[in-house]
Write a structure and sequence with these properties.
- InterPro entries: Tmem135.
- Keywords: Membrane, Transmembrane, Transmembrane helix.
- This is Transmembrane protein 135 N-terminal domain-containing protein.
- This protein has 17 helices and no strands.
- By secondary structure, the protein is mostly helical.
- The chain starts with a helix and ends in a 5-residue tail after the last helix.
Length: about 400
Amino acid sequence: MAISTTHESSQDEAHEVQYKSGSLALSKRFFRQFVRGFGRGLALYAGVKVVAAIMKNPFRKGLPGLGKDIICKDGVKFATFLGLYPSLYHLSVDLLQKVRTTKDGWNHGLAGGIAGLSIIVENDIRRKAGALFAIARALGSGLTTLVKRGHLTRIPYCETISFCLSCAFLVYCTALEPNLLSKGYYYSILKWSRDYTDANLTLLFRKPAESFISCQAAGLHQESCTNHAFKDFCLSFPAFAKLYLPIHATPMLLFRRKLLFQKPLAELLTLARNLAMSSAFLATMVMLAKYGLCVLRNILGRPPPIPPLVPVVAGFMCGLGILFERSSRRKELALFLIPHTLYAFYLLGKQSRLNPLLVLPHGFVIMFSISMMGIMHAYEREPSSLTQLTRGILNFFVGKHQ
């Protein structure tokens, strides 16, 4: 009896030591991943602030003051989220594997949802943006997976069609319902247009008038609409090249550093080609949207407000500019517009009888968490269903669970 009791006691002690050593290893891994993610978050926040400041003030009056803009509460929130998400994700996978005693896609999906709750530390604007970004990516990966597995038939040019439909709705919102767009996105569109302002859009498109108002009378341009469209493209191209340079250069520096050192000329030529095609895409898109509005308004010759069909048709036409982009980029561009489209529908719903159904405490946190379940399952089990950009972001900030 004494021998049996001693044996059981030694087994209990062994289990306790094993449990403590396992818990210590998980704690160390959690802390290490949090610190790494937090540091990367601070670096990314600082980099975005520096690039934004340089683009606004390219050393005309010296370097802009950035200290207070980087070491701030907002930057700490951003870095904390990027530290918590990967550390919580990997910890959750490890714990789920122990509890469920199996390794499958459910562990990754559930862990992605648990980690997704960490976005609650973020500010309200980034919570909304993150939720809408994740919803679009989850839908995209889910549909791609269903097509790959033969449950759905792929529609030819589905990315282009989706992009054009989103453009049609967003141009309609810009022209007639700017209250359905976030202020930042709306004023970015006005900036990209170069000569549209809220005042002249109100005059030309929204405010009722007794007679037709030409572009010349509104002060948009003095030459014909066709000549202005050509001039507009030429002037927009270098501006969009400046916009796209950090967008294309950042992934190369973050995710393809080895190739850049091994084959610098090839990588730089690829960067130049992609930069030219993206600039042509956005310059064409803006030009076609504005030219389409001009042509259709002149054909109708009606006083404002313009019929909703005018911006819808012009927006669909301008979406065809995506054909300048390589096919691998079209899906990402379509997914970029879907969050803005979803947000516009959300605001539209809040103005309707559906408003009570949309008032959900921490609704965007919940939506982000649910969406990350699908994204992390796809990342671990069906990585090809995600776009290259999404995979690159997850590789850098989260990494595969080992």
